[in-house]
Design brief:
The complex is a heterotrimer of chains A (about 120), B (about 220) and C (about 625). Chain A is mainly alpha-helical and about 120 residues long. Chain A is about 80% helix and about 0% strand. Chain B is mostly helical and about 220 residues long. Chain B contains seven helices and no strands. In chain B, helix 2 packs antiparallel against helix 6. Helix content of chain C is about 65%, strand content about 0%. In chain C, helix 8 runs parallel beside helix 10. Classes of the chains: A mainly alpha (about 120), B mainly alpha (about 220), C mainly alpha (about 625). The interface between A and B is large, with 56 and 64 residues.
Chain lengths: ~120, ~220, ~625
């Protein structure tokens, strides 16, 4: 792999890395702006934006971070150019990790809802 | 130029150029895939770490809003500070790919410059976290104050520990590089540390919105 | 031996004392033997605990042990058997045989392999040292909060458990990374994934389970330790925490752990049945995929351990359904094993008897498992002896029968000696009868309502006969393993009589001398088919290949021994012991933790900069 990676790196060298760094930074700025627009300092000055983006705040944040995550994994960690097996190792772990997070959140939310409704706990 | 998955040629070249710290034999090492053992191992470890952080993040999320008393995230988080720390960590990921680029080109000066910047960025992030934690502590949020504090400190504290280990690892490679012990053929030594470093970075890419922004919003 | 081994490491090793050699070895075969020996001793300790438990329960209102002692005994019995006996006994086979089966000279990271073993051993000794302090863990192998929290378990007892399991987790994770890499990357030329022996496949899947489930228990243990040591309230209602989160995290780990215990057993059985039926494994690819399917589903069924916690009908139904699904791939495996024997030329040697015993016993355990998957039925069975019967049928009737089968099958390869067939058969029949006598009556005791984990029971509830039978069976089981020990001692004193290929094997380990030389394969073998050795024999037109020669191994470069894995393992142990320290050794300085951390870091640095053949002279 090393020989092949060296080849690739001479192709995808510094300029590509810089572009990605710029995108990553812009996305982070967007995340913070989104927060400021929905809940922070910008809320008062732009109430229309806040009320239209507010309900989708969490979803938008997750999409933005997922994109950043993907950029780093694909280009900085070279998954795009490396052997497929590495993508499988990482991808499968991520799938199981997401399943665990989502399932635990679902289980606890569901259980607490049953508690709140009362009477239908069993 | 070998095609990406040309096994035999690539395997031969891999074994020829890579220093096997732990491979059982040098002359006749056979790899069933054209990939170095250490690289596969670090990815496997990273896969395992996904579940480690998934459990910590689950705990944080399950306990969101369950604390019996304050302070809560809204009383304590400061967005500008942590945004700055996030940016530094993102940039350090960029620094380390540039360093790796230098190592793979055999450009020692480029390697040392960018790697030094990475180590500095790592130290800066740790410094930011130490400042943040001590600030929170003085605001009255100790580890055992409530569920939020305990799950927040555990999650970000373990991330910080990973940053510290990564910084130490990169600093060790930097020391080797300064001594001239990271030539082109040993770029993998840096690549392994860099992969770990990027992983620590992507974990923060999740933690920043999920822990900070989402706790402040909604 | 006519030839002397000329490879540098070996020549050097001759100058080192035997103790030093074993302490610093990085040879996967030696590490395998170390795993086996330690795990067998822990198995005997766990067995002794079981015998005390059974003696206490032999008759109603018995007073052999106090309730407090009983809690410690059943907790340590479970913890020992799972983490210190079955897992490391499987690890013995991974270590010794995975490199041989894939035609490699060693694992991917020999020193990491040594570290795994030392961390495991020190962790196991640490857990058992609790008995010396009169404070063995007493909250069950599942350590349910708040029974394991500071409030209800104030002493050192559960500290030992919480810390011991974290130490053992490190050993498992390191081994997981190592074997995953080894199997994917160190296969002999031509050994594609779908030509790998089934044991290697099951090992690979087991490592995936280890890698993805152990981090979860590690996090749970860290939080429990924080509750106990630092006073947080992750799992305490008083601080807003939820003990249910402990149960969920524990079983997110705990259910894959069950497959970590049984999949290696499936692999062993899938090696033995074809060899003693003289027929290739029936449905090879179905076996691979059903193994992978079991592992994948294994991450989606954990809450079936928690039906009685009131998760609600939707969650109960979901986990019931997922659990029932697992019966399908497991059934596929059982049919394929039977299909392998069907029409074969069956050779009824000891390993084959144990393998057949495994199939029968595992079917019984599997069926009672399906009964548990039905949530309403489980509410009746949970926490009763019916459950105890079920999981012993899969863990003992499954894992231990298969590991014993593997022991008899591979013993000649490991030690160069054939075990005695007559004593082996005695062992088998005593074990089969003893096992069923112990655990079958527990089904009835459980259905009559006898709860688990009680130290005694009053007369007149109908439990007496079943408990008496179980106790008698337990002693029979104990005797069966004494027969095994006698067998080992007897044959050890005899000549080294094992040929390279005593059973007419199908896989590469039988192509080399018994026991194998340090470098395993003088020349790397190129594999062309599944059952590589059978194919080689067919090609040569013989039923047995000629006895392989011992060769000098000159020029084969093997990794040198190293002290650093042992040093790092000690550092890890000391680091974790630091968390038991209460004031004045505690916050903010925690000197013991810092010392342990310093030793670990020092060891890792020395290790990283140690040349792989540091102790071997130049050649």
């Amino acid at each position: 792999m090393a020989a092949h990676a060296v080849e690739e790196h001479t192709h995808t060298s510094a300029s590509k890395y810089i572009q990605i760094a710029v995108v990553l930074f812009a996305l982070t700025a967007l995340e913070v702006l989104l927060y400021e627009a929905c809940f922070g300092h910008l809320k008062e000055s732009m109430p229309g934006l806040a009320s239209s983006l507010g309900p989708y705040f969490v979803q938008l944040l997750l999409i933005l971070s997922a994109f950043k995550f993907w950029l780093v994994a694909m280009f900085y960690m070279h998954l795009k150019f490396d052997m497929k097996v590495l993508s499988w190792v990482f991808g499968f772990s991520l799938v199981i990790a997401s399943v665990v997070i989502l399932a635990l959140i679902a289980l606890f939310t569901y259980n607490r809802t049953l508690w709140w409704i009362g009477g239908v706990k069993w | 130029m070998p095609t990406p998955h040309n096994t035999e040629a690539a395997a031969t070249m891999t074994t020829a150029v890579i220093d096997h710290h732990d491979a059982p034999e040098h002359e006749e090492h056979h790899s069933s895939m054209p990939i170095d053992n250490r690289k596969l191992a670090i990815w496997t470890f990273i896969g395992s770490e996904c579940l480690f952080f998934a459990s910590l993040i689950s705990t944080f999320l399950v306990y969101r809003g369950q604390s019996l008393k304050g302070p809560g995230p809204k009383d304590i988080f400061s967005v500008p500070l942590v945004t700055f720390g996030t940016a530094v960590l993102l940039f350090s990921s960029f620094f380390v790919v540039m360093a790796l680029n230098g190592a793979q080109e055999g450009n020692r000066k480029k390697l040392i410059t960018w790697l030094s910047l990475t180590v500095l960025a790592g130290c800066f992030f740790i410094g930011m976290q130490v400042y943040e934690f001590s600030h929170f502590y003085h605001e009255g949020m100790g580890y055992t104050t409530n569920l939020f504090s305990a799950s927040f400190y555990t999650l970000t504290g373990f991330h910080g520990t990973h940053v510290a280990i990564g910084t130490l690892w990169l600093a060790t490679v930097l020391k080797d590089a300064i001594k001239g012990n990271v030539p082109k053929e040993k770029a993998l030594n840096l690549e392994l540390a860099a992969l770990y470093w990027h992983f620590v970075d992507v974990v923060w890419i999740i933690i920043f919105p999920v822990v900070y922004l989402m706790s402040l919003g909604s | 031996m006519a030839t002397t081994v000329l490879d540098p490491t070996h020549a050097h090793a001759a100058k080192r004392s035997a103790v030093v050699e074993w302490l610093t070895t990085v040879d996967h075969k030696k590490i395998g033997i170390l795993y086996g020996a330690s795990a067998f001793i822990f198995f005997l300790i766990g067995g002794l605990e079981a015998l005390i438990i059974r003696t206490q329960l032999m008759k109603p209102d018995n007073t052999l042990v106090s309730p407090e002692m009983y809690n410690q005994l059943f907790t340590m019995h479970g913890t020992t058997m799972i983490f210190l006996a079955v897992m490391p006994l499987s690890a013995m086979f991974f270590n010794f045989f995975v490199p041989l089966l894939i035609g490699a000279r060693d694992v991917a990271f020999p020193r990491l392999n040594a570290m795994s073993f030392w961390v495991f051993l020190l962790g196991g000794l640490f857990l058992n040292a609790s008995f010396l302090m009169g404070a063995a863990p007493n909250g069950g192998w599942f350590g349910y909060a708040p029974l394991s929290s500071r409030q209800f378990a104030g002493g050192l007892n559960m500290d030992f458990w919480v810390i011991g399991l974290q130490i053992l987790g490190i050993a498992s994770l390191a081994a997981g990374v190592n074997f995953f890499t080894t199997i994917l990357n160190m296969r002999a030329p031509g050994m594609t994934l779908m030509r790998m022996p089934m044991f290697v496949w099951m090992t690979l899947i087991t490592q995936i389970l280890v890698l993805l489930s152990f981090p979860v228990i590690t996090v749970a243990l860290i939080m429990l330790m924080a509750d106990r040591t630092f006073g947080s309230s992750f799992f305490s209602w008083a601080g807003g925490g939820d003990p249910m989160l402990w149960q969920h995290l524990f079983w997110v780990f705990g259910h894959p752990e069950v497959y970590i215990l049984i999949l290696p057993a499936f692999g062993i059985i899938s090696e033995i049945l074809p060899v003693f039926s003289r027929k290739p494994l029936f449905g090879y690819s179905a076996m691979v995929f059903s193994g992978a399917f079991i592992a994948f589903l294994g991450f989606g069924v954990w809450s079936h351990h928690m039906f009685s916690t009131g998760m609600g009908p939707l969650a109960d139904s979901f986990f019931s359904l997922m659990t029932m699904l697992i019966a399908i791939p497991t059934g596929v495996k059982i049919f394929n094993w039977i299909g392998t024997i069907w029409g074969g030329s069956v050779q009824l040697k000891t390993p084959m008897w144990f393998a057949l015993g495994f199939i029968a016993m595992f079917i019984i355990g599997g069926l009672s498992g399906v009964m548990h998957s039905v949530a309403p039925a489980d509410l009746q069975q949970t926490d009763s002896y019916f459950v105890v019967a079920h999981f012993h049928y899969v863990l003992f009737g499954g894992s231990i029968f298969a590991l014993t089968a593997g022991g008899y099958y591979w013993w000649p390869k490991m030690f160069g000696r054939m075990l005695d067939e007559k004593l082996g058969m005695t062992h088998f029949w005593l074990m089969l009868v003893g096992f069923n006598l112990t655990f079958f009556p527990m089904h009835f005791a459980g259905l009559l309502g006898m709860p688990r984990r009680i130290y005694t029971y009053p007369a007149g509830l109908g439990f007496e006969l079943y408990n008496m039978m179980a106790t008698a069976g337990a002693f029979l089981l104990g005797i069966s393993f004494l027969v095994f020990i006698v067998n080992v001692i007897k044959t050890w004193r005899g000549p080294a009589n094992a040929p390279a290929d005593p059973w007419g094997g199908a896989t590469l380990e039988w192509a080399i001398p018994s026991p194998p030389q340090e470098f395993n394969f003088p020349k790397l073998i190129t594999v062309h088919e599944k059952d590589a050795l059978w194919q080689m024999k067919r090609e040569a037109g013989v039923s047995r290949l000629p006895e392989p020669d011992l060769v000098s191994g000159k020029g084969i470069h093997m990794p040198g021994p190293s002290w650093w894995p042992l040093v790092v393992a000690f550092g890890i142990l000391i680091f974790f012991i630091g968390f038991m320290m209460k004031d004045p050794w505690a916050f903010p300085f925690r000197p013991v933790n810092i010392l342990g951390f310093a030793i670990t870091t020092f060891g890792i640095f020395k290790w990283a900069y140690e040349a792989p053949d540091a102790h071997a002279p130049q050649h």
